[in-house]
Records
---
Amino acid sequence: MSEIDKNQEIIICRDVHKWFDSFYVLKGINLTVQKGEVIVIFGPSGSGKSTFIRCINRLEEHQKGQIIVDGVELTNDVRNIETIREEVGMVFQQFNLFPHLTVLQNIALAPLWVRRVSKNQANESAMQLLKRVGIPEQANKYPGQLSGGQQQRVAIARALAMQPKIMLFDEPTSALDPEMIKEVLDVMIQLAKSGMTMLVVTHEMGFARAVANRMFFFDEGQIVESGTPSEIFQSPKEDRTKLFLSQILSH
Amino acid sequence: MTTIEMQPPRLTVGPFAWLRKNLFSTWYNTALTLAALWLLYALLRPALQWTLTEARWGVIEANLTLFMIGQYPRDQSWRIWLAIYMLGGMIGLSWGVWREAARGFAFIALGAGLGFALISLLLNLDTWINWLIADAVLLVFYASGLILQRRGTTIAALGWLLYFPLVFLLIAGMRFIPWLPPVATGLWGGLLLTLMLAIVGNIGALPLGILLALGRRSKLPILRYFSIGYIELIRGVPLVTILFMANLLVPLFLPVDIRPPDAVIRAMIGFILFEAAYQAENVRGGLQSINRGQYEAAQALGLSGALTMTFIILPQALRAVIPALFNSFISLFKDTSLGAIIGLFELLRIGRAVLAQSDWLGTHREVFLFIFIVYWGFNMAFTYGSRRLEEALGVGKR
């Protein structure tokens, strides 16, 4: 496993609260991530885990508390938000590729227009990323012509193209057919081993066991339990954690 | 396990089998078929007889130029030919560069060129050569488009962007260019004016419509309420009233020292203002069809709002509503006939003017049938081209 810099706190969340109208989703989340750490967040649906990682690049706004990403506090200042979003890549459950652009264009678009690199350079880096996720031969196809697993790998490449310091994964394998989950997880494992800071919302416990440094169990908008994978799997302290793990690991 | 190779069962049948199955399967089916045939014959025979023997088509032949360009100076008609050649060139170039997307329009243009050349020959007009030149220009530009390949896309896009303003200048003329003297819009007429009204109306309306659609979805209340107010106001009144208003009010809104624009320009402004409201609603429909995930993915990549709109949302939204946009185009093309009411000599009004000629009294049927065919032919051609475009643009979307 890669080096973790214990002295560099890249994400700091202090007492984060969020409501959707009157619905209380996040009830005081405290969580600090070191540079290079791989964090797995799991929990029942509706527990606020997706909402939480979406707060980190401000796709959702928190209403109370503090989120500091790479030294910049997330406030309503638009410039701060755009800076953060350039540093934080995100992979969605539904891929959200741009269907009207080719695979290569999907990946090269943001470097081209946000980072302002040259077109040749953007395309070249995009090709390299496609090789890294194992599908360089699909470069000129449209997303609709790819399988789900391939699409999700393109989505990972697209996020990586901005050379982010942090990658957020929001249930990246939940929408995939079973035979395609592995190809996506392999890419993610490889990424984790390269030293990327990752926050992954997932129920793929194999992935957690293989690369996670710490795991957080969310339930009803709170962190119920956290620890290393071995602590969580072998000696969960809370009853809710035990129950949930038994439900997802029973078969 | 061996793989089983099996052909699908053959369902194709010959024309006779089809006839027997669908038209003559039972005795009453046969009776109905025969009755329908007789009815068709009875209805069509007088129509055909009139068309071929009684109709005085000379009224069209004698006034063909009038129908096409109205009072546009005959010695300046080369400008219109030049505009047609340029159109041929642009269509050819687009065909070479964008292939399938522009192929429908290219086929239509080629066919129209050949057809018009043939008609010109039959009518003993020397314009057949012009139509063949247009087709030749189209083919030459098609070839150059093929050679340019993807590099040509920018040229073609720029070309289209410049084409319409250039043609407008060409046809309107400029005081400062000696070989391009101004032609007062009052002299524009016939199909030329109809097309100019439709094209200017639509091209002016689309950007305005996009802005209004974005405004209507804006978070800023002033922008939103202005857009809603504008759209609902315009959609709430008939086009004719807007044309009258444009005619009367545009001069009032301008400063005193500026000469008010003439009737054609005023009508164009009216058409643009009218069409913008409808295009805005079309575009809004497209915007609403875009999944929220597309915005989120773009935001997560650090794209600003403007970049997200330009590269992600609008291309998809506009593509989704191409049928609606073309539908509005066709609508406006036909609605230009309302220009007749405010005194513009567009196709329909030219028809009425022709009917007033003492030589051709009583040729209403011929004239209106001709106008009918011109409108219908244009719209069919346009529909065909746009449908091919839609099919080609569907690439990659399932």
Note: The longest strand of chain A covers residues 5-20.
---
Amino acid sequence: MLRVDVPIDLAALADAQDSIETYLETEGAPTALALRVRLVVEELLVNLVMHGRFAAQPPPAARVAVAFEAGRARLTIEDAAAPFDPRGGKAPVALRDIEAAPTGGLGLPLVRRMAEILDYGRTEPGWNRTELLITGVS
Amino acid sequence: MRFDVVDLGPSALKLVLVGRLDATTVGMVETPFTATVAASGKSAVLDMTGLEFLSSLGIRLLLSATRVVSRRGGKVVLFGAQPMVAEVLEAMALGDLLPAVGTEAEAMAHLVA
């Protein structure tokens, strides 16, 4: 298992993603799976940077853990933002009018398509805990 | 992340995307990319063969550029997407707005269809 603390800052994202991708490749995960995990990590952490509401400033780093087991990746993200359950929301709907296309809010629908959100809860005062399972290309 | 521009004649421009288009890199190309398609006044084919990774912020850029081209009466067609990129586009149900085909020839045919 790899554990990495990621500052709530876009500048810190790439290093964390690289560490996670390298870990998965070292463990023998297929490239497609490693890229899926990289994507899910990005979308969730970008969401925290852009929309997370934190009581403390600067916000505490998010705690990210990844384990590759039985051909799948189990991803856990803990953060100190205000409560936010990523399981809600609608699936993407095909759009035909470019003027109606969304200019934001694409990240979480993408997460829900790329990962199974196993659990969400509050584990200690002020912290969210989201657990996801990411499998290979379906 | 970088993009190269190839003039395909009076009605189309090819933009060749290379690298990873994500939260870290989108800021490097967002302004010049959109400005290029806006200034050309042409339709655009996006060569995705060298694009290894696409996240939602990258999709937002592609949609923004498509909106600019569409308002000038043009089209945007993608071709040669790698599996990860194709998977993301499919997952977001964007096939009508960002049609993706296999080859440049198919993309050019799509522009005149």
Note: Chain B has a mean pLDDT of 95.
